[in-house]
Amino acid sequence: MVRYSDIIKDSVKKKDEDGTKDLTDPKKTDASLRFSAIKEFSTSSELAALPAEKDTEYMEQLCATIVDYLKKVQGLVKNDEPFDIKQAVDTVAHIVNTPDLVEKFYQATILSKNDNEDYLTYHLIKVMVYALKVGAGLKYSRKKLLELGLAALFYDIGLFKMPEKITEKRGTLTDAELDIIKKHAEIGGDILSRFQTEHPMLPRVAREHHERENGSGYPAQLEGNEICEYAKIMGLVDTFDAMIHNRPYRKALAQHFSVKELVGSKNFLFSSKIIKAFLDEMGVFPVGSYVRLNNSEIGKVIATSKDHPLKPTIKITFNGHGNKASGKNVINLEEHPILYVTAAVSEEELPSNQIV
Predict the structure, then answer these.
(1) 306 and 264 fall within a common domain
(2) What is the number of other CB atoms lying within 10 angstroms of the CB of residue 199?
(3) DSSP state, 252?
């Protein structure tokens, strides 16, 4: 698969059986879907069928519903056929309007292991969740969160039109292949232009999500305030997710080290305002990362604290002797003043390289 972080680095260097929704009918997308006109959102039958309890099964089914929809959209886009976005609107509204669902969905998706299946589809879902968290940190209104979440599901839609021999390639892309891949931003904007009237931010975010603060991005080398804020958010969280996931041709960076790299790019590639909101929401040690405590135990972060970012809640995975921990030993470091994080730990550094 395409290494999306390589594209980013290169740009700097160069300066109805399967569902009840009819996605093929563009007539269903009308003025009623404008966010300014929405008061109460209808819920798609797929969402209505989900279990009411916000448990693991619920999150898995919600994710599966979105995956099925995006795959159907992908097939239609590849064949130059129109698609409907009402289900996407319903889904984002459902997530935004359900208390604590963004946080619960975030924890479920970030801890899941699906690096080798439908990478782009799951990538879009995770980017949506990250974006909604950053939007919440920026105190976005409900309407803006809906716009942001919808844009996140479609910002990379141009990649659906890229040649599979390039997107499925194992290894570094050639300059010529990178030039082809870079066209996905403008192609995505063109695809989404049919929704311009109801959702003007959709095509703009698609076109601008690879633009960077210093003008080193593409396709228009926009800089600073020329780039819309939604696209700035998408650019940051897109990069973060690409960095922390294993691909067939390279190992993922540990989340903590990915965060450090992004912070180091402040005002160069990414907005300091967006980075601050990202850090506030994701934490210095994001959910899913491993840390070593001062008693030599190693744990996996399962929750973070905005008030005490260096005091996450962790599940102990290895004891001080390097042996796999038994039982469900969960520690909220805020409640244990004598315990603290001494270092981040990459998966390669885990005892016997055991990923838990």
Answers:
(1) no
(2) 23
(3) P
Condensed to tens digits (0 to 9), the pLDDT of residues 256-291 reads 667 777 777 766 899 999 999 998 888 888 888 899
Q: Are residues 330 and 259 in the same domain?
A: no
> Among 255, 282, 309, where does a domain finish?
282
d(CA 146, CA 97): 9
Answer with the one of 282, 310, 343 that is the final residue of a domain.
282
Task: Supply 295's token pair.
Answer: 């008693």
Structural element, H or E, at residue 74:
helix 56-78
The residue segments making up the domain with residue 297 are 290-353
Report the C-alpha gap between 245 and 347 in whole angstroms: 11
pLDDT, residue 294, reads 93
Domain count, the chain: 2
Contacts of residue 72, defined as CB under 8 A and 6 or more positions apart, other chains included, come to 18, 19, 23, 83
Rounded to 5 degrees, φ, ψ at 287 are -55, 135
Per the structure block, which two tokens stand in for 54? 């916000």
Q: Give the CATH number, domain containing residue 29.
A: 1.10.3210.10
Tens digits of residue pLDDT in 293-332: 999 999 999 888 888 888 999 999 999 888 888 777 899 9
Long-range contacts, stretch 261-267, CB < 8 angstroms, 24+ apart: 262/236, 267/213, 267/214
**What pLDDT, on a 0 to 100 scale, did the predictor assign at position 41?**
34
Judgement on whether residues 68 and 129 belong to the same structural domain of the protein: yes
If phi > 0 it is left, if psi is from -120 to 50 it is alpha, else beta; for residue 353 that is left
Furthest C-alpha separation in the chain? 63
Contact 223, 214 (CB under 8 A): yes
Q: Which helix (H) or strand (E) holds 7?
A: helix 4-14
In a shared domain, residues 142 and 270: yes
Are residues 196 and 304 part of one domain? Answer: no
Main-chain dihedrals φ then ψ at residue 191, nearest 5 degrees: -60, -40
7, 181 contact by CB (below 8 A): yes
